[in-house]
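Form 7-S
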Amino acid sequence: MQQTNNLYHVSEEAGAKLFALRPPASYLEAITGDVVFAISDKLLLNYLLPRNCQPVTFYAGEQTTQADRCRFIGPSKATLVITPF
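Output:
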């Protein structure tokens, strides 16, 4: 996947035209005001599954060993795998 600098807003509502500010998740203590989150190209695939289907995502990179590729990806030439948890 070619990486760009695009940002995306993802919604479960088809045709959403307005993304309302909301309080951040409680584990994001450094963010004190209401926010709209944006997702980068690299993480967008994680948000294309339904919210109740939490994915596990892993990527094969330049430093991935052949043993790890075989273990996690198998014989495929894919560079990423997304599977429901």
